[in-house]
Amino acid sequence: MSEIDRRVLQTIVETANDHFFIVSGDGQIVDISPGAEAVYGVSREELLSSSVQQLQAAGVLKPSITLEVMRTRKPAQLMQVTGTGRRVIAEAYPVFVEGKLERIISRSRDLTDLQLLQDEYALLQKRFNEHLKRSQAAPDAEEQALDDALDDLKVRSSVMREIALLLKRVAPSDANVLMLGESGVGKTAFAKQLHRWSQRCDGPFIEVNCAAIPENLFESEMFGYQPGAFSGAARQGKAGLLEQAEGGTLFLDEIGELPLLMQTKLLKVIQDGSLTRLGDTRPRRVDFRLVVATNQDLAKQVEAGLFRLDLYYRLNVIPVTLPPLRDRREDIPVLVEACLRRLNQRYGRQKILDTRVWSTLMGSDWPGNVRELENWLERAWLSSPTDQIEVPAFHSSAAHSYAESLPGDSHSSPAALEAHETLKQYLARLECETLAEVSKTLPSTYAIAERLGISQSSVVRRLQRYGIKIDK
């Protein structure tokens, strides 16, 4: 083995979360990873001078998985209780050279902390349920406040009413809230309403899009920095977004996009209630209510190794799933009316909807949810030459359905599905055409993102995918 390969292997062993044992064919310990001594309660020197037979006899390994592999000459897996009382899951594999058992490689994963975390999570859920039972007082006042908030949120459906009621009841606590749901369902709006209901309503509401901050700037933006911490740092230093949320609510949108390294740092802040700026050695206390949101399945990301399990448990104290617009169509009319009022006020004209539009609005699935509905309405408003809104300027699946429902040939219609073109290819073509159109008039990816209601990083990826350059 070359020196480079040896160092690579050493780094892998020393930085892994699992604890490794390398044992000779007769049971003598050859090497161990550094973290093993803390789990098994024996110093590295003692372990290296021992055999697995001696460690099992001393109760350090209960039982020894290596002895099982030596006996069966096959891979094995089992649960162990170490001499320190920690529960680990261990697995071991034989290494043969010309039929002779030369080495046994075993690795163990400590499950004790995970069990403690699960117990803590269960306790938080129990306290939350008790809090819900105590919060039934003054139902009339609560109902009135809820109705007022629902008017602001522009929702009428019973399912959204139940979600709002849940958020109102948990608002006085500082429990972490995880907002789940498709893109555009209103997670940010409900997070802001949760803040208004909370005891921190007089504090700041700091909104952070985790996908919009470049990874190399994330730590300085979130944690802040001291003067001279790096080249280009502000002379007076800077408080990060975590500090700016002091006494208020920190809303982390698209939390599933958070890099693994930053996940570790965020977990430490949640656990310790303090942070350290870049270039500083002094920890600073922080006090904020944490609300996060994602349209991804975090549990699957945990399984794929893209999201930390311990952070997932910390965030998933109060999970709230907002349903898509297609599952609460009774909210569409009030959303349309509110959007139309805003458009009329913005552009200084009083336009109304053609009555035939309503069948399209109520019948479409709106995969982009509220955001797509509002964008479609704005396109329709801008493309209508009269004060009666009929056909949108840019084509969408909703516009297609509506155009087909109109009599005659006087209305423009979207590009037809080409021969042998799949739905995925068709939608990609429409997306490309829309991006190309808005790129001709808007000066930056941030302006395009705001116009289309998506993140700036999503705009950059899509423009690169289609080879589109901004005409500015």
UniProtKB/TrEMBL annotation:
Q: Which PROSITE patterns match?
A: PAS, SIGMA54_INTERACT_1, SIGMA54_INTERACT_2, SIGMA54_INTERACT_3, SIGMA54_INTERACT_4
Q: Which PANTHER family match?
A: TRANSCRIPTIONAL REGULATORY PROTEIN
InterPro entries, alphabetized: AAA+_ATPase (IPR003593), AAA_lid_NorR (IPR058031), Homeodomain-like_sf (IPR009057), HTH_TyrR (IPR030828), P-loop_NTPase (IPR027417), PAS (IPR000014), PAS-like_dom_sf (IPR035965), Sigma_54_int (IPR002078)
Q: Which UniProt keywords apply?
A: Aromatic hydrocarbons catabolism, ATP-binding, DNA-binding, Nucleotide-binding, Transcription, Transcription regulation
Q: Where's the PAS domain? A: 5-51
What name appears for this protein in its UniProt entry? HTH-type transcriptional regulatory protein TyrR
UniProt keyword annotation of DNA-binding present: yes
Q: Sigma-54 factor interaction domain location, by residue?
A: 153-382
Task: Give the originating organism.
Answer: Vreelandella neptunia
